[in-house]
Write a structure and sequence with these properties.
Layout lengths: L3 E6 L5 E7 L5 E7 L5 E3 L7 E6 L5 E7 L4 E3 L6 E3 L3 E7 L47 E2 L6 E8 L2 E7 L2 E2 L2 E2 L6 E6 L4 E7 L1 E7 L5 E6 L2 E6 L9 E2 L11 H19 L3 H16 L8 H13 L27 E6 L4 E7 L25 E5 L2 E2 L6 H5 L7 E6 L7 E5 L6 H16 L1
Antiparallel strand pairs: 1-2, 2-3, 3-4, 5-6, 6-9, 7-8, 9-10, 11-12, 12-15, 13-14, 15-16, 17-18, 18-19, 19-20, 21-22, 22-23, 23-24, 23-25, 25-26
């Protein structure tokens, strides 16, 4: 298929729409049939077409296209340039479907529920059928102002899209900012939902909620044609991600190598030696200690071609993982290799009356004993391939769930416990008490 962007699935997941870079350096729209594997080029590549989005009802395909000519004259010379070239467009997937902007005599009245109807019927996923013959010729412009448009999505007859300021060499014209806008097809009206968003937006699968970044924080907002709809901050304080830097560095290196292999100005020119060059510098990956080292290796790999206008920069420079002590349960785990499950070989009793000797699994009334199996921690299965302490990482100060069973295949029950930062004192007290018993 080659380089493609802006991927969007049809509601029934049988079609995949995207834009693709053509040899003339413009983008055209394509649709791929998942069922039959056929690829259809929708637009000819006369304009930059991008950001396709299927309507939720499976009748329309929306897209962005740079078809608008807005010439401006420089304030300092007589040079001319074009700005805000993008418009929104919509085409009908079936030739028999009327245009959403067909003439009408009056604004359609809102539908009323039928007498006796209770609740909401569960919406069925529409089957999407496409008449490819004349698909792009059926496109019409959505009547919104020209802009620089970066993203589109549709739900319940409302088209959402992002506009960004006119780019200038210094970044952006002061006072201009990205906007999240909406267009209601039934009302044939447009409005701005919010100004100053960052990084685009996401629409939930059921079309009910918008997610976007606002002033550095993620917020959730009802997907409504209403500028006053209340947005709520998304609590990300408990979100965590485990990163294996060396695995990530290897992936970054290999992706950079593949990008040059596939998209070099003349791939055939480097085909004979590019695998050898990639292997030569890949051997240095075990020596990498940070992102700066990785960038140095990739720069030397790409620099071997002697080609200009290829750059390596950025990444997680200077970033350090915050300290994260491993939490403990005050136990010794043992593995039943044949069952592939861990059990509690020993539960340290500690002394719950003395600070620092709190024993998480030796609390009154807790239904757990030595020999029981721990099948899951916080809903994540604990099997032989996993170190139990991997699942305990990042749980300090939290109440966690343990799924306990008497046997590897037994019926589990759940207990709630609070891990401790260090089980060392529990081990020490157990050793002291054992020594006392030996002496006595």
């Amino acid at each position: 298929i080659g380089a493609f962007e802006d991927v969007a699935f049809a509601p029934d997941s049988r079609w995949l729409a995207f834009s693709k870079h053509l040899p003339n350096h413009l983008h055209a729209l394509f649709i791929y049939g998942v069922d039959n594997g056929q690829l259809h080029q929708v637009s000819r590549g006369d304009f930059n077409d991008s950001n396709p989005a299927f309507s939720q009802d499976g009748k329309y395909l929306y897209f962005v296209s740079a078809r608008l000519v807005n010439p401006v004259i420089s304030s300092y010379n007589f040079g001319a340039s074009g700005v805000v070239p993008d418009g929104l467009y919509v085409t009908t997937l079936q030739a028999s479907t009327p245009s959403p902007f067909a003439p009408r005599t009056q604004t359609p009245a809102a539908s009323k529920p039928k007498p006796g109807a209770k609740g909401k019927a569960k919406a069925k996923t529409p089957a999407v059928n496409i008449d490819f013959n004349g698909l792009i010729e059926r496109a019409v412009q959505v009547p919104v102002p020209a802009a620089n448009i970066e993203q589109t999505a549709e739900a319940k007859g409302v088209l959402y899209y992002v506009t960004v300021p006119v780019p200038v060499l210094g970044g952006a014209i002061p006072g201009q900012m990205p906007e999240l806008r909406a267009y209601d097809l039934a009302k044939r009206k447009a409005l701005t939902l919010v100004q100053g968003i960052g990084g685009g937006f996401a629409l939930s699968a059921n079309g009910s909620t918008l997610l976007y970044n606002f002033h550095g924080k993620w917020v959730l907002r009802p997907a409504l044609f209403n500028a006053q709809a209340k947005a709520k901050p998304l609590n990300t304080s408990n979100m965590q991600m485990q990163v294996d830097p060396r695995a990530e560095w290897a992936e970054i290196y290999n992706e950079a190598w593949r990008n040059v292999r596939d998209y070099f100005v003349n791939p055939q020119l480097i085909k004979a030696k590019w695998a050898m060059i990639g292997g030569h510098y890949r051997a240095l990956l075990p020596l990498v200690q940070d992102r700066e080292d990785l960038n140095y290796i990739m720069a030397n790999m790409i620099g071997s071609l002697g080609e200009s206008h290829m750059y390596i920069f950025g990444g997680d420079m200077g970033w350090k993982t915050p300290p994260q002590p491993t939490a403990g349960l005050g136990v010794e785990f043992a593995l039943n290799a044949s069952a592939g499950r861990y059990y509690l070989k020993r539960i340290f009793r500690g002394d719950n009356t003395v600070p620092g000797y709190y024993a998480p699994l030796a609390q009154p009334g807790l239904k757990v004993k030595q020999g029981d199996y721990v099948l899951a921690i916080n809903g994540k299965p604990l099997t032989a391939s996993i170190n139990p302490y991997e699942l305990l990482q990042g749980t300090l100060g939290q109440t966690i769930e343990l799924s306990i069973a008497s046997t590897p295949a037994g019926k589990p029950w759940t207990i709630l416990v609070k891990p401790v930062v260090n089980s060392g004192k529990l081990h020490l007290l157990h050793w002291i008490n054992n020594n006392r018993r030996e002496v006595n």
